[in-house]
Design a protein that fits this description.
Blueprint lengths: L2 E11 L6 E8 L5 E7 H11 L9 H11 L3 E11 L2 E9 L4 E6 L1 H11 L3 E4 H7 L3 H14 L4 H5 L33 H27 L3 H19 L2
Parallel strand pairs: 4-7
Antiparallel strand pairs: 1-2, 1-7, 2-3, 4-5, 5-6
Length: about 240
């Protein structure tokens, strides 16, 4: 079984699935990439660690790391070993110095833990052969995302968000009532304007998700509840298009 090393190339918002992100893993020494669709929470967790940002309270992946370190255990590597029916499978290899155990994992969790331990991310070549994409595919995907102008998740969690979204965890939820109808029903609206409306809405949704995570981390559950309600309405509006 031949194995190759991977590195994180990019994390971008996925246009086809609400709240989903694409984790793009590049094969070291090659132009081939492995795109993996992951959840928003996992994307934020990976991005926070890559940006060397720490939450006020431990995230799930931080808790996993702290627990292992408490018992003098380390993560040696993570391995993506199978791709079946559109699903990736991974193992996390944990060692206490005397023995190594493999733990079944989603790729998103495995990568989030690997970046915390600075452990290598690896993949069997058969998975690359099945699901890998070329530079041309990456360019096409980037162009598709550029049309919608999705923000990279690492930008969202760094605090560089829309001025309409408050960074103050004790402040009020921003009044974005006009966003509920930002997608004009008028059929005469040209495609260029509609694309702008779409990306404006998606920017605000991404920014609100980042603020929701911050509110939960600060244990400001009242604000988190209010932001969640706004998000649900905006995402319903988006899904209806």
């Amino acid at each position: 079984m031949k194995i190759v090393d991977l590195e994180i190339h990019d994390i971008t918002l996925t246009g086809s699935l609400s709240g989903a992100y694409t984790l793009l893993l590049g094969v070291v020494g090659s132009t081939v990439k492995l795109p993996v669709v992951i959840g928003g929470a996992e994307a934020q967790s990976i991005a926070l660690e890559l940006e060397n940002m720490k939450s006020s309270r431990p995230l799930t992946h931080d808790l996993y790391k702290n627990t292992l370190l408490t018992f003098d255990m380390e993560v040696g590597e993570v391995l993506i070993y199978k791709f079946e029916e559109g699903i990736f499978y991974a193992n996390i290899y944990v060692s206490d110095g005397a023995q190594i155990k493999q733990i079944d994992s989603r790729v998103s969790d495995a990568v989030a833990i690997a970046v915390r331990f600075r452990a290598p991310i690896r993949c069997v070549t058969s998975v690359i052969d099945q699901a890998g994409i070329t530079d041309e595919d990456v360019v096409k995907m980037s162009e598709d995302l550029s049309d919608a102008d999705y923000d990279d998740v690492s930008d969202d969690v760094s605090g560089d968000v829309s001025d309409d979204v408050s960074d103050d965890s004790t402040g009020d939820v921003p009044n974005i009532q006009e966003d509920f109808s930002i997608l004009s029903p008028d059929p005469k609206v040209d495609d260029k304007r509609r694309k702008k409306e779409m990306r404006d809405l998606k920017r605000r949704i991404s920014a609100l998700k980042a603020n929701l995570i911050s509110a939960v981390e600060d244990e400001n559950y009242e604000k988190a509840s209010e932001i969640r309600d706004v998000l649900e309405t905006l995402e319903k509006n988006l899904d209806n298009e």
